[in-house]
Write a structure and sequence with these properties.
single chain; alpha/beta; Nucleotidyltransferase, domain 5; DNA polymerase, domain 1; 3 domains; six-stranded mixed beta sheet; two-stranded antiparallel ribbon
Length: 387
């Protein structure tokens, strides 16, 4: 198997790959000890047979530049094929500020083609490529060198089988007229904001039942400081302090080092130095926020008047449509979508794009009493109602 450790070899491979309609891509990385993923290996393959069609690229090799790969990623005539692409794409966006386009995610395509929710690569290899994967190298330290033959074989299989999977799914989508559905889904994966975490927005992921404006102001400042600190030093945010410690700090409002020392959940390293100073400043800044500038919790879901009968009927409708269309139901609409529709909301993802055509139009007609549901054998059908 071909291992690429020089920029020239990578450029030569990418030049050959650019002559083909698609290239399959995967990565191996580490993130346990860093904020950003550390790219340890990139696997690439283009259509055809022979050892030269698939390679392992070693980004840890001294002097290797990934610019030839990024140039291939910018090539609009070559489809870049990934499976469950989000983490891979984040690596390239953080490293080079680019997202490979055009993009095809076989996990999304498989859900559209009826392979179930969040279908794994191993399942597709077994069902489509009719092969079995050796999983012994799944949990490994990809930063260590040299790689074993077992590791190399495992890594290369992530792109060689992907060729057959892509070709099969692409044909199925085109045959069913659903290639545009997947294209809509790719819009989210190719949006830069998908891969950017702004420190000022980090508080929104903190789970807390306290909706006080003052409390949330402190949470916002503590989350902002933690995110900025973690990003600047490339360490996991939980190494600064964990969510439960953050919530505790927002509740106790420490004003000095002595107060910090009373925390039950704060890591020892966070009770002194830069982190301690950052915590105390964040708390003070949060307390100083004017009432009109305090963050407002999203209470729309709590205030939503969901009609449970309509929500249940929508779930039945969704099940019937998902079975009929052979599409994973969660890809069409989430439980939150159904509750929102049942509460009268119309700015819902399930009522947009291809989802509206497949499910949303019937969902609205069901809510408006224009259609009913019936069971015919094992099939759920819609029935038109007279005015």
């Amino acid at each position: 198997m071909k291992e690429i450790t020089t920029t020239q070899d990578l450029a030569d491979f990418c030049a050959r790959a650019a002559q083909h309609p698609y290239v399959t891509v995967d990565t191996e990385f580490l993130r346990e000890r860093t904020y950003y993923s550390k790219l340890c290996l990139a696997q690439l393959a283009y259509p055809g047979e022979g050892d030269e069609t698939a390679v392992l690229v070693d980004p840890l090799a001294g002097g290797l530049s990934l610019e030839p790969l990024y140039e291939l990623f910018r090539n609009k005539s070559v489809v870049k094929v990934f499976h469950a692409a989000r983490q891979d794409l984040e690596i390239f966006y953080v490293d080079a500020g680019l997202i490979p386009t055009p993009l095809f995610d076989t996990q999304v395509a498989a859900m559209v083609c009826g392979f179930g929710e969040q279908v794994g690569y191993e399942t597709l290899v077994r069902k489509i490529a009719k092969q079995a994967l050796d999983k012994t190298s799944r949990f490994t330290d990809w930063s260590r060198r040299p790689l074993t033959d077992a590791q190399k074989t495992y890594a290369l299989a992530d792109v060689t089988h992907l060729r057959k999977i892509y070709e099969y799914l692409a044909k199925e989508l085109e045959k069913g007229g659903r290639d545009k559905w997947v294209a809509e889904e790719m819009a989210v994966l190719t949006a830069p904001e998908t891969y950017v975490t702004l420190p000022e927005d980090a508080w929104k992921r903190i789970k807390t039942r306290n909706t006080s404006g003052k409390f949330l102001s402190i949470v916002r400042e503590l989350a902002r400081f933690r995110e900025s600190y973690a990003q600047a030093r490339n360490i996991p945010r939980n190494r600064v302090y964990k969510d439960d410690a953050l919530v505790e700090l927002a509740s106790t409002k420490p004003a000095n080092a002595q107060d910090l020392g009373r925390s039950r959940l704060l890591l020892r390293e966070a009770r002194k130095g830069e982190i301690a100073d950052g915590i105390l400043k964040a708390v003070a800044d949060g307390l100083a926020v004017r009432p009109e500038d305090q963050p407002k919790p999203d209470l729309s879901r709590e205030k939503m008047q969901v009609n449970p009968a309509i929500a249940d009927m929508l779930r039945v409708l969704l099940k019937g449509i998902a079975d009929r269309e052979g599409v994973a139901s969660k890809l069409i609409a989430t439980a939150a979508d159904l509750d929102a529709i049942a509460a009268g909301h119309r700015d819902v993802d399930a009522l947009k794009g291809w989802r509206k055509t497949v499910f949303g139009d019937d969902a609205l007609r069901l809510c408006d009493g224009k259609i009913a549901l019936r069971v015919k054998g094992s099939v759920i059908e819609t029935v038109e109602l007279d005015d």
